[in-house]
Amino acid sequence: PALGIIIVAAGSGTRLGRREPKAFVSLAGRSILAHALEGVLQLAEPARIVIVAPRSRLDAADAVVAQVAGAARGYVSVVSGGESRQASVAAGLAALGEAPRVVLVHDAARCLTPTDAIQRVVDAVRETGAGVIPVQPVADTIKRVDPAGAVLGTVDRSELVHVQTPQGFPRELIVDAYARAEREHTDDAALVAAAGYPVTTVAGDDAAFKITTPWDLRRAETMLRRPVG
Ligand code: CTP
Ligand code: MG
Counting beta carbons within 10 angstroms of the beta carbon of residue 87, is it exposed (0 to 12), middle (13 to 18) or buried (19 or more)? Predict the structure, then answer.
């Protein structure tokens, strides 16, 4: 397939505070990873998918593939991740092979991302040839504070956005940027930008929020029980 998707699911989920790694925590009866895989499989075009899982959970990830991917399972593989998210993405890139022209990197933890939000990223990569990230405006007022908590000032919100995933890139561009990366970056777009490549934005989606805390998990449960709209 011309599209490759890396689902990074190798984190431990420290802030969620469960015993099992976050991607294997149950959400409305199936794992967060199962929801995430289901979401990307709903794209209209076939995709080569690599799931990056904790080394201790490779069998569990295989079981998710068997359960969710059905006829598409031949396109899905599982590899083990690294200490950092960046190392996990690198493992996913190595496993993806050279066929995909466009590569998406997606957090398993954003498991309720709507298909059309994913499609927007794919389309924009093909249109621009640049890196593409889904973003949303910042809703709250943002302030700078000192270590003691005193307010230093209010930040101009008009220039700020929240960044989501999937982030999309022409394959050769993200592969080159990863080969040249000299330090940890906060996201793939920052790593790609540090290599000198352009990155642009498309509209994200409220439902693409990241499950980070127990509160986020409750929010996801509520969404699945009573879908909005
Ligand atoms: N991730 C990964 N490998 C790592 C760290 C993170 O594949 N070494 C993945 C997570 O599984 C998650 C995504 O990157 O899908 C976003 O990371 P985050 O939400 O921070 O997940 P965790 O690192 O697992 O959570 P925490 O930071 O609370 O420990
Ligand atoms: Mg983390």
Answer: middle
Catalogue all structural domains in the chain, each as residue range(s) with its CATH number: 3-111+166-196+209-225 (3.90.550.10)
Percent pLDDT > 70 in the chain is 99
Say whether pLDDT at 227 is over 70.
Answer: no
Q: Are 54 and 81 in contact, with CB atoms under 8 Å apart?
A: yes
Q: Which atom of ligand 1 is nearest to the CA of 83?
A: 8
What is the CB neighbour count within 10 angstroms for residue 228?
7
Q: Please give the distance, rounded to the nearest whole angstrom, from the Cα atom of residue 124 to the centre of ligand 2.
A: 27
* Interface ipTM > 0.95: yes
- Ligand 1 neighbour 187 (Cβ under 6 A): no
**Which residue, chain included where needed, has tokens 């059905």?**
70
Answer whether residue 229 shows pLDDT above 80. no
Angle between helix 85-96 and helix 171-180 axes, rounded to 10 deg: 130
Q: Is 83 a pocket residue for ligand 1 (Cβ < 6 Å)?
A: yes
Q: Which of 163, 166, 200 is nearest to 3 (CA)?
A: 166
